[in-house]
Amino acid sequence: MNYISFLRKFMKKGACPFCDPERDFVITENNYAYITPARAPYMKDHLLVIPKRHITDLGKLRKNEKNCLFDLIVSGMNVLRKKYPAVEVDYKEGDMKISKKSVPHLHFHLIPKRKWSNPNETSLRKFLSEEDLVSEAKKISRLW
Ligand SMILES: [Zn+2]
């Protein structure tokens, strides 16, 4: 079974793959969150940090859930940093298709990083002048 078929099967039953996980899938947990290996990993040792309550957006987390989630993010990163030089924390929110999010239950990806696939990638990124940066900050601040 591939990942998409797996997800369709779950969603058809109205179930969420992150609510009530198999105990054997849980690497570690605290009162409000747990860590599990990614079922469809981007790379080896890709982990997910997931709140136990079904929540879709960060803004819906309660204070104690935020603390527990953040503790596990840090804990997972510390473990991965023993083996990898860097770790990326990835989070997606909003429209499922646009964000390329496959499970609606809030979760953070902890993705080990080795080295850039293209060492020149950093130099190819657009770099804003101070003037453009100020302009961007002003534009975005209007959203608050
Ligand atoms: Zn869920």
Q: What would CATH call the homologous superfamily?
A: HIT-like
Describe the global form. globular
CATH topology: HIT family, subunit A
Query: Largest beta sheet, briefly?
Result: 5 strands, antiparallel
CATH architecture: 2-Layer Sandwich
On the 0 to 100 scale, the average pLDDT is 88
**Looking across the biggest beta sheet, what order are the strands in?**
1-2-3-5-4
Low-confidence stretches: none
Radius of gyration: 18 Å
Q: How far is the first residue's CA from the last residue's CA?
A: 44 Å
Which range best describes the helical content: under 10%, 10-25%, 25-40%, 40-55%, 55-70% or over 70%? 25-40%
Structural class: alpha+beta
- What bound compounds does this protein have? zinc ion
Beta-strand content estimate: 15-25%
Number of distinct helices: 5
Q: What series of H and E elements makes up the topology?
A: HEEEHEHEHH
Describe the protein's architecture and organization.
It is globular, with a radius of gyration of 18 Å. The protein has a 5-stranded antiparallel beta sheet, covered by helices on one side. It has one domain: HIT family, subunit A (2-Layer Sandwich). The chain has 5 helices and 5 strands, in the order H-E-E-E-H-E-H-E-H-H. The protein has 144 residues and is α+β, with helices and mostly antiparallel strands. A hairpin with a 3-residue loop joins strand 1 and strand 2. The chain binds zinc ion. The site of zinc ion (ZN) has 5 residues, from loops.
